[in-house]
Amino acid sequence: MNTAVDTRSLTHSELEEALASVRIPAYPATVAEVMREAQKDDPQVKVLARIISSDVGMSALAVKLANSPMFGNGGPVKSVQQAVSRLGTSNILNVVIAVALRNTTTGLPADLMERFWARTSTLALATGVLARRHMGISPDAAYTYALFHDAAIPVLMLNFPNYAEICGEALHDPESLIPIEREHFNCDHAVVGWLLARSWGLPPLIASAIRYHHDPEVYILPEKELPSSALALIAVTVITEHAIADLTGTAAPVGSKAFENAKMFLGSSDADIDEFRELIAAALV
Prior knowledge:
single chain; 16 helices; disordered N terminus
């Protein structure tokens, strides 16, 4: 049976229903503070560093990201101010939002969330590295999208105590997850992720990619509905997910059709995929 669901079929009233049935976590003051500084014509590194330094989790993540294969071509970063200088404002905002989102999930099982965020962080870093090999794909945007494209899953867990019980097995099979979410909760993590991204100030391009990343017709959507630059973020993340699955011996989180479509969209050959797998393996060491 074909369980694919066209996420574009949601009407305005259905979106309103999703908004009414799901409580989006409040926009934290720290995120707003960083957003205000980042949007200035001349954002101050010292101001951003002060904000990041106020939180141990943000400080640790900023330094770790600055020393990752995405950015670690120079000498090792040892201070938050050095990390802010290397990462730039968009990635500092990613750090703040990522830690703030993690903090909203403190009421969920710690081991489950630790695995979820560890997998997400690994995917984001690897996707950012792989995006550097594709002309026209921003590594920063690829990292941001991969980091947040499934962030609504913990949000749904917070809203619906029986979410994990109902969707547990399907979490490893996204193609069946969306219909199950729709059936039981009148919404899905792609739509809720889109609402979350908009509410927390992520770029519209990222929000659009999150909104459509499980749409079965994603590769034939009109440009005005899903820009090709947003579709590229989805495609490079799918390739990365498959590479990580191959390297770790786990099941790929998306089906072979999605993988082949991503390869075709990016113009990647089998030899390219082998090279990408080696690149990601080196990045994950």
